[in-house]
Each structure stands twice: as structure tokens, then as C-alpha cells.
Design goal:
CATH architecture of one domain: 3-Layer(aba) Sandwich
Helix content: 10-25%
CATH topology of one domain: Rossmann fold
Strand order of the largest sheet: 29-30-32-31-33-34-35-36
Structural class: alpha+beta
Largest sheet: 8 strands, mixed
Strand content: 35-45%
């Protein structure tokens, strides 16, 4: 299969009109089309716009392909990653590609649980050689803590990475600089300490700022390097974690940080700090969801906002805004996202999400005013395999407005349908209107799928997030079943044929639906969901020297508990209420999960078996929390669909 994918790449990777050809009404794709890794995971255009770096898969194995950007352009190089988890790709000049990968490990000599470690290397297109960016560094780990930053200095590409350097047996976040032409890496002489958790470098490759976070005190500070050394530009209490650094500002010399508005603590705004420590608030930044930096990362040029379901790109330069408006106009009716662009901002790779065909990548040339498709993200989708997604709104029991998305199975009358409630993870996250492989897969099997943005979800203002504090297993849970009741009242779904499925926090919600909010669901499937809150927090604490840390404070705030001894933790732990379960439960968990440990599912399985309740535990070997491997991701999907069809038949 990989050979056939590469043949398409070498041939030019062009999507033709056949992609949208009408198939037979019964032509619904197999589950593997949704469940395996997407055909394309990332496309990055080179700074000069002449080449494309394409992260391609055959559904299981990953490969990086470098080819000319012109239509029918030749393939330049290929790297076969196999089962290695490819996390990110970026260009450093026109002859170097920086690759970030990760693996789950317990390094020899280090204490604490297994963790996901990230590594980065440079691939030289001229020599066809690879070199680790942290190779041969004394008193350091061969890992990186963030994606590399690229700077071109006197025509030479450099990579700046945050590495782990040991001082008195304590690993500190330290800035390293690699000359990609010579391959020489050296530790920079910047003055970090044990609290440093992030760095920024200027366009000319000098350390500019660092973020520091004191876990015990819950205090964050911004350090900026001025003419006389490092100065504390800001220091605030931030109990829930570090504020971090949001990148370079509009002039390339300032520092961006998201902070609470001084006039309204319920609003977060983007502060821009000058080297002298003075700062301003960027206008309208309270509406920004993410930032857009210049292709070289050296300055802020715009922002992305999701207003309801309206995707808005705002650029500070009027000509750049006009160019983007022209790009969007080229794909009427579709949702268009910027994936990468050349240094002159005239060649753009965009992801185009079609409500009827699914997502695909396209290349836009503003100079020639032309656009052409490059590749489908999911190979094998048919029009019958892409179900309609509708935004919905409903009132929770206490009157709070909840939004969400309802996916309706293709070709079926939206009346008395079987329903799957699919809550998102996080829980401080959100669902959107874009193509979602999981809900689309379930809809292709005849189920309506509800993805609610319950209270505590991000993207709807701080008061909405705050409304979720202390509501694990309570209002956050009934927000889901209130959605079921709303759809039943509308006649869209059959309230007697409803199941709940979710991953991570969504997995917890599935278990809570079987134990805390009973009588709504016929079955529940939890993928990597926590079941014992106290054990979950104890395991999280193993990453820190003290129980006084931001992770503990964050989870306790959401769970509504005072500490590890709080009896409320048991009251919201599904494993402690296994005897109350009245429906079949499916548990699925990856053995390499470093976010929600595998033991959370074994604890639930043991409790259910002891109580004589129906349960099935599916173990995903070598899988992490994010379902990063194609074979096990598909195993999960097949298991869930089989479980649903057995316990809640779609017909």
C-alpha cells in the first residue's frame, strides 16, 4: 500500500475531478477509511515556494516525502518512518527539513513514570543525511521540549531548541543552537534556572525572553533580556499553570503573552511587552483564538477567530487581508485553513474542508491567481461517506445555553434515529464544525452523533469555563443528557436507543453516564477514560517533587475537591460505583498512555467484574493517549462499532 501512495506522490499528488464523482448510493466506505491514519498528516511549503514536505501514510506506516511544488514535479527525497510517531515538520531554508518525532519511554536513571519524549533531527536535502539536533551534548538528554525555532543568520540556517541540561542532577530547560550548515550544536549562555519553561529568540538569533513558573508558589514571571542583562518584566499569580510565551510581537522585538485583562478578569487578552518591560494590549485580541506569525516566525501578522461557526482570519496588513480573502473566495462554501506559506506569502498550502467531500489540501499561487488540489486527507471517502453536520443549541436544566454538533447519517430520514453521544476530551477543549473522523465513522453505520460543548469547554469565554469547575459527574454530565432529551423532544432520535462513547475526559463521561446519570444510555464505551479520581491524581503527582503543583490544582478545581483525602473524589469515581451499573460497558486503553494511565481501565474492569456486571476490556498494545498508531486506532474503532451494533443496533 505504501508503494502505491508514493507512486501518487511522485506523479504529482494532484486531485482530479474524479474525487468528487458520484458513487452508487450504497457506496459507503469501510471503517478503515476513517479509522486508519489519514492519508496526509501535514504539508509544508519551503520558504522559496519551490518544494513541498509531505507527511504521508498508508494508514499505518508513516513517510516524509519531499517533492517539487510544481504540478507534476519530481520527487526529491523520501524518509520512511514506519511505526515511528512523526509529530511535526518544518523547513529551515530551502535545503533543510527539521523533523520532530516522539516515543514513550522510561529513560535509564530517571525517576517517575513513563513519559512521551520528543526528539528532533535535521534532514539535509543536499547530502541526504540526518543529524539529531541534540547529538553529543554533555550533561544533556537527546530530547527536545518544544518544536525547533528557525532563524537564517548571514544566509546560514540555524535551529534553536529547548533541551534538558542537568545541573546538580536536576534537568533544566536550556536553550541550544545548531548551525545546520556545519552540524555544530552548542548550549547558549542564557541564564535560565529550574523554573524556566520556555524561550524566545530574536530574528537575529539572540535570546530575548524566557517564561518561568514556580510550581509550589503558583507564580509565573516573564524575563526579558535588555541592555544590562535579564530583567523581570512581569510577575503574576497563576495557580493553574504557566502563562508561557505566545511568540514574537508585531515588530519582531517584542514578546507576546496571554493574560487576564486588567479591567475584566473574565477576559483574556494578548499583551505585547517591549524589551524595556513596558507593554500594550493588542486591540481586539480578546476575540483571538490563535495567532498567525510570518512564515519565518519572526513577527505577528494576524490571528484566527472562531465566532460561532464562522472561521475568521484577521491580518494586520490590508494587502495581506485582501490576499487571504481572495484565497477563501476560490473555495466557495468550504472551510479554508492556512496550513503553510512561503516567505513572500504568495504561495500558500491550505486545508479545504468540504461538507460533502471531506478535507483535502490545495496549493494557491497568488502570483498566477491559480489554485489546484494536492491530495485528500482521507483517501477513499465517497459522498455517501460524508454525513451532514448541523450546529445545534439547547438549554441545560439550569438554563445555561449549550451548543454542539449533530451528525446525521447520510440518506436517512432524521426521525427516531439511534444516537451516540460523543463528548470531547479535555475537558477544557471544544468541538467544531470541521470534519471529524470518529463521528463520521459512526454516522456511516447509521447512527446520529451528538458532540456537545458542555460547560467547562473552551472557546465560549471564561465564565463558561468557570461554570464547569466542581461539576465533574454533575452539571457537566447532565449537559450531555439534556442534549439527548432535547433531540428526543424534537423527534430526531429515539430516546430508547442512545449510547455514550468518549475518549479521555469523554471516556470518563461515558463511565459517569453508566454510574452517575443512569437511565439515559443503553451502553457506554470509554476509551482511555479515568475511573478512579484519587488514583488518577496520585499518579499525576509522581511527575512533581511536591503535591503543591499546577496539575493538582487544575484537576481539583474541575473535580470540586479540596485534596486527595476529600470524600467527594470517591463520589465522582465510576470505579467506586460499579455496583450501580445496569448497562454493558466497553473499556479500551493503550498500554503506553502517559496521560491517563492504563490502570484506570483495569481498575474499572476489576470493579465491574467483582460486581457481576457486563464488561469488556480491549488493550491497545504500544498505543498512547492520542491514538497515534493506525492499527490500534482502527482496532479501537472496530471494537466500538461492534459493541454499538450488538447493544444498540442502528436498524
Amino acid at each position: 500500500m505504501l508503494k502505491s501512495v508514493l507512486a501518487v506522490v511522485a506523479a504529482g499528488f494532484v486531485m482530479t475531478a474524479a474525487v468528487g464523482a458520484q458513487a452508487a448510493p450504497e457506496n459507503v466506505p469501510p471503517l478503515s477509511v476513517y479509522g486508519r491514519l489519514p492519508n496526509i498528516e501535514q504539508i509544508e511549503i519551503s520558504p522559496d515556494g519551490a518544494k513541498l514536505a509531505i507527511a504521508v501514510t498508508d494508514g499505518e506506516k508513516r513517510m516524509l516525502v519531499i517533492r517539487e511544488a510544481v504540478q507534476g514535479g519530481k520527487m526529491i527525497a523520501g524518509l520512511n518512518f514506519g511505526d515511528t510517531k512523526l509529530r511535526g515538520v518544518r523547513w529551515a531554508g530551502s535545503e533543510h527539513v527539521l523533523v520532530t518525532i516522539s516515543s514513550t519511554a522510561q529513560p535509564f536513571g530517571l525517576s517517575g513514570p513513563r513519559q512521551e519524549y520528543w526528539m528532533a533531527f535535521d534532514f539535509n536535502l543536499v547530502t541526504k543525511k540526518q543529524r539529531s539536533l541534540m547529538e553529543g551534548q554533555e550533561e544533556a538528554m537527546n530530547v527536545v521540549l518544544d518544536a525547533p525555532t528557525v532563524r537564517i543568520l548571514d544566509g546560514v540556517p540555524y535551529a534553536f531548541v529547548e533541551g534538558v541540561h542537568f545541573v546538580d542532577n536536576y534537568g533544566q530547560n536550556t536553550l541550544y543552537k545548531t548551525n545546520l550548515k556545519t552540524g555544530v550544536t552548542r548550549m547558549m549562555g542564557a541564564a535560565g534556572n529550574k523554573d524556566t519553561d520556555g524561550w524566545l529568540v530574536t530574528p537575529d538569533g539572540e535570546p530575548l525572553a524566557q517564561s518561568r513558573y514556580d510550581e509550589k508558589a503558583g507564580a509565573w514571571s516573564l524575563q526579558i533580556k535588555g541592555d544590562r542583562g535579564w530583567n523581570t518584566a512581569e510577575r503574576v499569580v497563576s495557580k493553574m499553570g504557566s502563562l508561557g510565551l505566545a511568540g514574537l510581537g508585531r515588530d519582531g522585538r517584542s514578546v507576546l503573552v496571554w493574560m487576564d485583562d486588567e479591567k475584566d478578569e473574565d477576559t483574556t487578552v494578548l499583551n505585547e511587552y517591549a524589551p524595556d518591560g513596558s507593554h500594550v494590549v493588542i486591540p481586539d485580541s480578546a476575540k483571538f483564538d490563535s495567532l498567525i506569525h510570518a512564515p519565518d516566525g519572526a513577527s505577528l501578522v494576524g490571528a484566527f477567530s472562531l465566532v460561532g461557526d464562522d472561521r475568521r482570519y484577521t491580518f494586520f496588513d490590508a494587502k495581506l487581508q485582501a490576499s487571504w480573502n481572495a484565497v477563501v473566495k476560490a473555495f466557495p462554501g468550504d472551510q479554508v485553513s492556512l496550513a503553510s506559506w512561503s516567505d513572500d506569502k504568495r504561495q500558500l498550502v491550505v486545508q479545504v474542508d468540504s461538507a460533502t467531500l471531506g478535507p483535502a489540501y490545495a496549493l494557491v499561487d497568488l502570483n498566477t491567481k491559480s489554485a489546484r488540489f494536492l491530495a485528500e486527507v482521507y483517501q477513499g471517502l465517497t459522498p455517501q461517506g460524508v454525513s451532514k453536520v448541523e450546529p445545534i443549541k439547547y438549554k441545560a436544566a439550569d438554563g445555561l445555553e449549550i451548543t454542539g454538533y449533530l451528525t446525521l447519517p447520510y440518506g436517512r430520514d432524521p426521525k427516531n434515529l439511534p444516537l451516540v453521544v460523543l463528548p470531547h476530551g479535555g475537558p477544557k477543549s471544544r468541538d467544531t464544525l470541521e470534519f471529524d473522523w470518529w463521528s463520521q465513522a459512526l454516522a456511516s453505520r447509521g447512527y446520529a452523533v451528538l458532540r456537545p460543548n458542555f460547560r467547562g469547554s473552551a472557546g465560549f469565554g471564561w465564565p463558561f469555563v468557570e461554570a464547569g469547575f466542581g461539576q465533574w459527574g454533575k452539571a457537566m454530565q447532565t449537559d450531555l443528557s439534556d442534549g439527548v432529551r432535547h433531540l428526543a423532544k424534537q423527534g430526531v432520535i429515539d430516546p430508547k436507543r442512545v449510547c455514550i462513547v468518549g475518549a479521555s475526559y469523554g471516556g470518563y463521561a461515558a463511565l459517569a453516564g453508566a454510574t452517575l446519570d443512569r437511565g439515559v444510555y443503553r451502553c457506554a464505551a470509554s476509551i482511555a477514560g479515568p475511573s478512579d479520581m484519587k488514583r488518577f491524581l496520585v499518579d499525576k503527582n509522581r511527575l512533581y517533587e511536591s503535591s503543591k503543583n499546577s496539575t493538582m490544582r487544575f484537576w481539583l478545581q474541575y473535580m470540586g475537591a479540596e485534596g486527595l483525602k476529600d470524600p467527594d473524589l470517591a463520589a465522582i469515581s465510576p470505579s467506586q460505583m460499579a455496583d450501580k451499573v445496569e448497562i454493558p460497558i466497553l473499556l479500551i486503553h493503550g498500554k503506553d498512555d502517559t496521560v491517563v494511565p492504563y490502570v484506570q481501565s483495569t481498575l474499572m474492569a476489576d470493579a465491574l467484574k467483582k460486581a457481576g456486571k457486563p464488561v469488556e476490556l480491549v488493550t491497545l498494545p504500544g498505543e498512547d493517549h492520542w491514538l497515534s498508531r493506525g492499527a490500534t486506532r482502527l482496532q479501537m474503532l472496530n471494537s466500538v462499532v461492534g459493541f454499538l451494533e450488538k447493544n444498540n443496533p442502528p436498524n
